[in-house]
Specification:
Recoverin, domain 1; ten-stranded antiparallel sheet; 4 domains; Jelly Rolls; alpha+beta; single chain
Length: about 550
């Protein structure tokens, strides 16, 4: 029995890959003294008696690995690192093998496919343009080539010509901030190994009805002033959801689509009450960087007294991390902010008792950790491990740094809420991947505000396309009782990049549901860009 690409991706979605923090958390439970290792006798006892029991031969195969075992001790940090590296290589090899077949390559489902049922609670979508069952001309004098795949029964083309993005601001922010009440918070997007994006999410409390202005933008660290920061080009947005509805049926109020340089915002009137603020980035400019690291950055060194000290490069990175986790921007880190950091890097939290011990050993002010205290805490971690840097590297990679200590897989951002008549309050609630709430919000926004094209005479499969000045999003709505597979071809687009990083791919839409096909942005904002996508029904 052969395994095709669709089956492979389905298995991956059913069995999400184990994260490094989960592995470390499991081993840490056995390491009661926090030594960084587990005795072979203890490891054998656990692995052969609990959970899915292993044989002695299988346990011996682990303890015989010389690079992570020494003197009867199993150093689990090294094992986790090796395991994740091997896992990634196996996954990459499997994908490359399956992509050899050109037919399979045109059916890239991958982990970008997210499906949720929507039809039962949304009104029927009415197409806003004429039906087209044949491809339309793409450019002046150009024509679509007929499909060579017999199973593609119907095709529809969407073509949008976009000019260079103007520097003129469409976002009207309060001119006199002193006349408005303001709330502020920071947050961050983090890229996971499976290309999922983790971010902070927030609750907004508005005591009374008021005109508000809500903005989000990437953060430029204080030590990076005057330097080009790669994450400043990442697009950001905030979706505003009404908390007065049930959690499953949160109402989309609006989202920040007006732009002023790198700032995106929304201005309007909100009633008194609680709201969810869910950050979002398309992924067009926020993706894994395939970069060869010539030399691993140095984290610590021995000073003239034979004591360990942090290198200048590592201190700079820790200073940036401190700014990232200082969510309220007051220059200090409280217990709640520190626990967001702990959950990200270790999967655990620090309780009140541990926080008291932390304050006794490291510099604090008004019950909050100072930047120097944070530096000393990381130095102590390296010293206690006898120079073992595995934990420090886990911290750095979890926070988005590569081995050259460059911030490549995280995008810090800041949120401002201005209210004319009352003092707004913003509170970070969680740090997690974008869930169904956000996907539903994106789909409903595109359906309500975008253009619609039916793919068939019965109008049961509809392409919804929404464009702003800076990005285009398309959603497929499937009203039928059967799943449908749609092939997308972007090969005639000009000066465009999409979040899937593929010019041709296919998506599967479940019965009675809708899903986001792709987000598209210009490669070069200073030049014209042309979005052209041919949608073809495969089945």
């Amino acid at each position: 029995m052969s395994l095709n690409f669709d089956d492979f991706c389905f298995i991956l979605k059913k069995e999400p890959p184990v994260q490094k923090t989960e592995l470390l958390k499991t081993f840490a439970k056995m390491d009661v003294n926090n030594n960084g290792y587990i005795l072979h006798s203890e490891l054998c006892s656990v692995l052969t008696t609990k959970g899915e029991k292993m044989t002695l031969d299988e346990v011996n195969a682990i303890t015989e690995l010389t690079e992570m075992n020494n003197d009867g001790k199993f150093y689990y940090h090294k094992f986790c690192k090796s395991y994740m590296t091997t896992n990634e290589q196996c996954l990459k090899s499997a994908v490359e093998k399956l992509e050899v077949d050109s037919k399979l390559k045109c059916r890239q489902f991958g982990n970008q496919v997210e499906i949720f049922s929507e039809m039962a609670e949304s009104p029927d979508s009415k197409p806003k343009s004429e039906r087209k069952t044949e491809p339309t001309p793409l450019l002046k004098g150009g024509h679509c080539k007929p499909s060579s795949t017999p199973s593609r029964k119907i095709s529809v083309t969407s073509t949008i010509s976009m000019g260079a993005i103007s520097n003129k601001s469409k976002l009207i922010e309060p001119n006199a901030v002193k006349e408005w009440h303001c709330a502020y918070s920071k947050g961050c997007f983090f890229l996971e190994d499976n290309d999922e994006v983790v971010s902070h999410k927030y609750k907004l409390l508005l005591p009374q009805r008021s005109t508000v202005c809500i903005t989000i933008k990437p953060v430029c660290f204080s030590q990076m002033e005057g330097k080009c920061s790669p994450w400043l080009a990442v697009d950001t947005a905030l979706y505003i959801l009404n908390e007065n509805e049930t959690e499953e049926k949160l109402k989309v109020v609006n989202f920040t689509e007006l732009r002023n340089k790198e700032t995106f915002g929304w201005r309007g009137e909100l009633g008194a009450g609680d709201y969810w603020l869910i950050p979002f980035t398309t992924g067009c400019r926020f993706k894994k960087m395939k970069k060869q690291i010539a030399k691993e950055a140095k984290l610590i060194y021995e000073d003239g007294n034979g004591c360990l000290a942090l290198t200048k490069e590592f201190r700079t990175a820790l200073s940036e991390i401190f700014e990232m986790i200082d969510l309220d921007g007051n220059g200090f880190v409280n217990l709640e902010e520190y626990n967001f950091f702990e959950m990200r890097t270790s999967g655990e939290t620090c309780d009140e008792e541990a926080w008291v011990i932390c304050k006794q050993n490291f510099e604090t002010k008004n019950n909050e950790l100072t930047k120097q205290g944070f530096m000393d805490l990381n130095l102590m971690e390296a010293s206690d491990r006898g120079g073992d840097l595995s934990d420090l590297w886990i911290t750095l990679t979890s926070m988005g740094y590569n081995k050259a200590m460059e911030l490549t897989e995280a995008c810090p951002f800041s949120i401002n809420i201005y209210a004319e008549k009352c003092k707004p309050q913003i509170k970070p609630i969680c740090l997690e991947t974008s869930g169904g709430q956000l996907k539903k919000a994106i789909c409903m926004n595109v359906v309500n505000k975008g253009d619609a094209k039916p793919m068939d005479n019965s109008e049961t499969i509809i392409i919804h396309t929404y464009r702003s000045d800076t990005r285009i999003t398309s959603v497929i709505e499937n009203k039928t009782e059967d799943k449908t597979i749609i092939h997308l071809n972007n090969e005639r687009s000009k000066n465009c990049v999409n979040n899937r990083r593929l010019s041709t791919f296919a998506i599967e839409v479940a019965p009675k549901s809708m899903m986001v096909c792709q987000h598209v942005m210009p490669l070069n904002e200073q030049e014209e860009w042309i979005y052209n996508c041919i949608y073809s029904v495969l089945s």
